[in-house]
Amino acid sequence: MGAGELTMMHSWIIGYLYANREREIFQKDIEANFSIARSTATGILQLMEKKGYIRREPVAYDARLKRVMLTEKGEELQQNTMKAIRNLEQKMRSGISPDDMDTFFRVIRTIRSNVENCHKETDRRRD
What we know:
The protein is mostly helical. It has helices spanning 8-19, 27-34, 38-50, 72-93, 98-126, and strands at residues 54-59, 62-70. It is flat, with a radius of gyration of 20 Å. This is Winged helix-turn-helix transcriptional regulator.
């Protein structure tokens, strides 16, 4: 099964599990991190488990809890995704000097800050 069979949410969860693979992650952590309901998380995780991207294992200290972990297939998918992103970024930066990239990101940060300030001003006017 390829990445085309996954939704964006599946991909985000795989990325989250990969980034936190040294920690114990439970369904409630996924619910909180992605602001999704328990029933939604249950359905998503069941499908991901069925497709072989994750597994859920009980923990010794609490029989009610099941740790959510990537399978080898899930880890491989995430590694391939990260490699593809790095390759794309490299192609996009081709012919652009490091100084120009620094300038670009500085300008983007300034624009983001300006947008956030506009939102704050709008919120204050409403109050």
